[in-house]
Amino acid sequence: MSLDVADSLPPPPGLALHHTIRGGALGWIAFRNSLLTLLTLGVWSFWAKTRIRRYLWANIQIDGDPLHYTGTGFELFKGAFIALLVLMAVFIPVNILGSAGHPWLASGLQLGLILMLTPLGMFFARRYRLSRTEWRGIRAAFSGPLKPFFWQSLGLGLLSIITLGLTEPYRQVYMERYFWDHSFFGTQRFSSDLTVSTIGKVYYLAWVFFFVPTASLIWSVWTATQGDLSLLTDENQMASLATARNGGALIGFFVGTMLSVITYLIYRVRLLRAVLSSLSLGGLRVSSEFTVGRAVIIALGAGFMILVPGGMLIIAISMLAKAVSGGVAVLGVILTPFLTLAVGSALWARFWTAPFTSALVATTHLTGTLELEGIGQSIAPTPGRGEGLLSAVDFGA
């Protein structure tokens, strides 16, 4: 087939994916949400999340029709309240145990509880969010069984700790595949063919950048103190320990940590792209061209636009408070953190959430066909309350 003939062929069939997300509109929603959240001492945060999600869902169109988010703030509030009671019942006795002279045992129990509760929170959050997502009147759903997922994710989490993170990609691949292989659009099941080989290289590069200089620094300090770490609390001893060897180890640690952070960010972007590109829904295939460079540009732009205006606002309010006296100055001191948080939230939504989501949608493609006539409405049970554990501890849900 000649190049001219190939270029003249029609594009592969698929569903057009577009967005009408506007950073200014999302920033204004975030600003109002922040003020209401502060005025209600955090209670409004559940309704704030709902408003943000409704805006984002409604401004993402598939084949010309928008997504719909049908969740409510009260559902999130109810789920978080129940989860908070559970967390208090679990963690308060552990904290009492630590205060009673068993700090190591309490720390071990806390780590174990976090390992157990985090996958549970992710499980219930997935189930709730999909159950509140619709397109063309058809509801999405997640109906995976809890018990095998819980034990498998718990075991892989423990294995990741034991192996100092070497098996972490296997845990993440397992969880992503489990979530997607048990997710549905109506009666049509999603499928994922994600593998560790597609994401592992960058992760292990980040692991090496962090582990090698960290181990070198620990070994250098250990040999310099001859195992007596109490010397580290003595300033004179610390000065004598700052030899060229230890200084080099310290520099290596910081350089390695920076390289590790950079490569880990690259890994997270590649993981996101790999997860999207591994998905299929019947005859429809998902692919993503989201790049690390695009994510870095968005992140740098967001950092600049958040720090500079935010810093200028704090300086301006502080100068105004110093220029006046009496009740006006007191009011300025009180309002400064409120306005800073509200403006910061608005800037974050405007320069990070909106651009990142827009770029992700713009670089994601749906090819193939989806036979809507053969897809029925989901019959999976819908949870009556929100995301529970993730909302209660605010894991960015």
Characterize the structure shown.
The chain crosses the membrane at residues 25-47, 76-98, 104-125, 202-225, 246-267, 295-321, 328-349. Keywords: Membrane, Transmembrane, Transmembrane helix. It comes from Elstera cyanobacteriorum. This is DUF898 domain-containing protein. InterPro entries: DUF898 (IPR010295). This protein is α+β, with helices and mostly antiparallel strands and 397 residues long. The protein folds into three domains: 15-39 and 48-62 and 290-362, no CATH class; 70-194 and 381-397, no CATH class; 199-277. Helix 2 packs across helix 12 and helix 11 (292-323) packs antiparallel against helix 12. Strand 5 (133-135) and strand 6 form a beta hairpin. It is globular and about 70 Å long. Residues 1-7 and 392-397 have low confidence and may be disordered. The chain contains 13 helices and eleven strands. It has an eleven-stranded antiparallel beta sheet with strand order 1-11-10-9-8-7-6-5-4-3-2.
Structure characteristics:
transmembrane helix; membrane; globular; alpha+beta; 11% strand; transmembrane; disordered C terminus; disordered N terminus; DUF898; eleven-stranded antiparallel β-sheet; DUF898 domain-containing protein; 3 domains; 397 residues; 66% helix
